[in-house]
Amino acid sequence: MNENKFMTMDPNTGPMEAAIKPLPFKDPNFIHSGIGGAAAGKKNRTWKNLKQILASERALPWQLNDPSYFNIEAPPSFKPAKKYSDISGLPANYTDPQSKLRFSSIEEFAYIRMLPSDVVTGYLALRKATSIVP
Amino acid sequence: MAAAAAGLVFQFRDARWLPDPVLGPSPAVRTPQPVPLVIDNGSFQARAGWACSDPEVPGEPLLRFRSLAARSRGARGGAGTETQVGNDLGSPEPLRWLLRSPFDRNVPVQLELQELLFDHIFQRLGVSSQGCVDHPIVLTEAVCNPLYSRQMMSELLFECYQVPKVSYGVDSMYSFHHNTRQDWPCNSLIVSSGYQCTHVLPVLEGRLDAKNCKRINLGGCQAAVYLQRLLQLKYPGHFAAITLSRMEEILHEHSYIAEDYIEELQKWRSPEYYESNVHKMQLPFSSKLLGTTLTSEEKQERRQQQLRRLQELNARRREEKLQLDQERLDRLLYVQELLEDGQMDQFHKGLVELNMDSAEELQSYIHKLSLAIEQTKQKILQAEVSIEVDVVDSKPETLDLDPLGSEQSLEDVESIHEFEPLFAEEQPDVEKPVTTVEPVFNLAEYHQLFLGTERIRVPEILFQPSLIGEEQAGIAETMQYVLDRYPKEQQALLVQNVFLTGGNTMYPGLKARIQKELLEMRPFQSSFQVHLASNPILDAWYGARDWALEYVNHEEGWITRKDYEEKGGEYLKEHCASNVFVPIRLPKQAPRTTETLAPSKVLAASIGNPCDLA
């Protein structure tokens, strides 16, 4: 993008100049070194995303007690999760065997049975309960 | 019901963002020496301003904008791609899919976009120095920021903007120091909840005890997405109107955290409580689903007209077909007569014309054709009869009504568990095919989103991440986990000052909830204290400014350009509000024109001037 700004200084792209002025406080020749993966070319301006950064950070020689971004992830919960109705959020004592949605009253059950399947999948996805494991 | 419902209807503000003006800073920022620029670089909002003790220069962030940029393609030629940053976007909704943020969770990874944000900041603040940004910069970073990210950020600041010196700090720590009063001890357990994640940070002797920090990957963003999906599933007809900005509005203004979640839910079971506490968000009226504003009789009329037209069309077609078939049959019969009369060669000629091989085929074809003609005649007769009857119960009518009817009955059904089933009578009324006037359809209510238990359900994900399927523990359990890593005396010290900061802690009722959780987890009759930041959103910026004003002329805490060149971009100078520096050298990332190295182990890489510039 920096390059864009300075290549458009040609006279034949007159109207462009007004739109993109070089900003005075910047070094005009700066290129991010983080751009470019293995095949660094003009098109390959991909930055590493967080997962990749963390993966490469893990490989560094950390000591046992050093704090690092992945070290400080909170542990999973030890307490069993409470069950709440998918529709109303009230504590759910029952689960519909057909759609696996949780409900807390008869009216909710009737409502669940009338739902189209994409809404059902949506509710399950909200809870991350969509695996097909029986 | 209409009277009671009118009380709690709210409108969405849908506020547009005003573009930031280019400010001309007072000369005090440059004389006697350039003052530090304080930037709170958050994944939700970026806030920037000056740290100057001169009274002319305001002590608040002059720029506050969402950390978003959108590159919209302009004219056809590929040229004219316009980039808009932050408040210049006006409203995030039309461009929602084009919006990009430099952040991935709470770490900046897309430094090109970060560069755009910095450009915007420097330009609007009126930085006028040529070829470099003259001012020292105080910047916030994530807790235990990955070294790679800090390296990239330092590179951006030192190489591109030629900043003289930079200081990195943790926003929650700045906020903590800003809020520390004289009588507060310098040990604390900070609970900082932001847009993308929530941290539990123990602070001992004013310094962050980084190895015992914990981070929960839940924040305002996950809450907004959860609310959006809940409402979209509940109101499938309003899918497009349920936007993230509206969700953020709901979270900021209509949600609260229950002190005791189960008890609060029990309260919501009762219809009276529901009625008095439900918040109805009025969506702007959209005529999309209802088509035109015809009354029901007019709609019926139109439907009948369409039916009549269809029937006439069919009848005409049938008659034509009948005629054609008749003609064909006549021809065939004629040819058959030729056979019976004995005129063989004419018969054969006729067969060939008809494209048939034998008399039997002719016979069977005649048979089939006469049957077809009979059937067509029958159908015509039937059609003529049925045209006279006004068709009332027709398929198109119920199909059209159903989405509306079912919407209403859905709303009724789900409020039924809060109400008596009075409404059960209304339901079959709507479903029935209509010959009379439809039941009075409350148009305003159709366009309302009812927020009942969602008001407490969504902020609850901080305490029970299992609501959205996250395996991590909630705030309370994580606090307990962190406390358990310390001996008892230190636990008691930490708990004397539990400090809540961060934008996502502004739900009403959070302090009471944390107090209740602490009461449950601490030993019987031990004391604890919970404090809220005075301004959870801006305190980080104020704290950073305080630090900058105090330490601007000191060596401590600033990374100068010389340090950057000698020790690499990931170098960090610790200070009272910073991360802990782990002295691992990253190999220098090669510039774009050459191959990148494979970084695996340590080893000081090349010092001196980085990238070969083309």
TrEMBL record, chain A:
Location of the protein in the cell: Nucleus
Keyword Hydrolase: no
Record carries keyword Transcription: yes
Coiled coil: none
InterPro entries membership: INO80C/Ies6, Vps72/YL1_C
Gene Ontology terms: cellular component: Ino80 complex
Alphabetical keyword list: Nucleus, Transcription, Transcription regulation
Location, primary (coarse class): nucleus
The Vps72/YL1 C-terminal domain, residue ranges: 83-112
Single GO biological process annotation from the record: chromatin remodeling
Protein name: INO80 complex subunit C
Organism: Chelydra serpentina (Snapping turtle)
Gene: INO80C
Automatic annotation (TrEMBL), chain B:
Domain of life: Eukaryota
Coiled coil spans: 296-330
PROSITE patterns: ACTINS_2 (PS00432)
SMART domains given in the database record: ACTIN
SUPFAM superfamilies: Actin-like ATPase domain
Keyword line: Coiled coil, DNA damage, DNA recombination, DNA repair, Nucleus, Transcription, Transcription regulation
Localization in the cell: Nucleus
Coarse class of the protein's main subcellular location: nucleus
Gene Ontology, cellular component aspect: nucleus
CDD domains per record: ASKHA_NBD_Arp5
One Pfam family hit: Actin
Gene Ontology BP annotations: DNA recombination; DNA repair; positive regulation of macromolecule metabolic process; positive regulation of nucleobase-containing compound metabolic process; regulation of chromosome organization; regulation of DNA metabolic process
Family note: Belongs to the actin family. ARP5 subfamily.
Annotated PANTHER family: ACTIN
Protein name listed in UniProt: Actin-related protein 5
Organism: Chelydra serpentina
